[in-house]
Amino acid sequence: MAIEQYMPDFAVERAYDVTLASLQKEKIKAVFVDLDNTLIAWNHPDGTPEMRQWLHELQYAGIRVVVVSNNSHERVKRAVEKFGVDYESRSMKPFTLGIDRAMKRFGINKNEVIMIGDQLMTDIRAAHRAGIRSVLVKPMVQSDAWETQFNRWRERRMLKKIEAKYGPINYQKEM
Fold it and tell me: Which residues pair with 143 in a beta bridge?
């Protein structure tokens, strides 16, 4: 297992630190974003005013935002319908199923999209497998839903390998 497959292209504190200007500079036309602990805290489904403003800015500028989540259709729909964003549920990350479906559904080319997520083992790995750029963010809350806890254990082990080879991941304030 090559650790490079888990290295993000960018690392920022929060999804909202991926600014409109940085997306335009990178010629990004679509943002795929994980749901739990990336867009919203898994235990706080209404999101924050800052998140709503970020979504509004991107959408107003014509950048498509698609939530790509491993959660069930019902869970993702309930979480994002109030934000007016598209979504792909049951994405099966770290596999590329959801990313591939979203790119095909919206006619998005690999070089025009970026995946934002809080997990190396699912979000970043899926982005690498799909051939798209990735942004790692810090989880919004330190607790996880029970389904995620095993991945966090595996992630800690992978982070130690990454740090041993490349040093610690340096989270920036923007891409």
Answer: none
CA 136 to chain centroid, in Å, comes to 7
Is CATH 3.40.718.10 the right assignment for the domain spanning 3-166? no
DSSP-assigned beta bridge partners for residue 172: 12
pTM above 0.70, yes or no: yes
User: Which of helix, strand or coil describes residue 109?
Assistant: coil
Burial of 122 by CB count in 10 Å (0-12 exposed, 13-18 middle, 19+ buried)?
buried
- For 103-122, what is the mean pLDDT? 95
Cα 137 to Cα 62, 114, 132, 172: the distances in Å are 23, 13, 16, 10
Burial of 58 (0-12, 13-18, 19+ CB in 10 A): buried
Domain residue extents for the chain = 3-166
Report pLDDT digits (tens) over 51-102: 899 999 999 999 999 999 999 999 899 989 988 899 999 999 999 999 999 9
* Distance from C-alpha of 85 to C-alpha of 116, rounded to nearest angstrom: 15
CA terminus-to-terminus distance, the chain = 27
Give yes or no for a contact between 151 and 121, defined as CB atoms under 8 angstroms apart: yes
- CB burial string 155-172: b at 16+ within 10 A, e below: beebeeebeeeeeeeeee
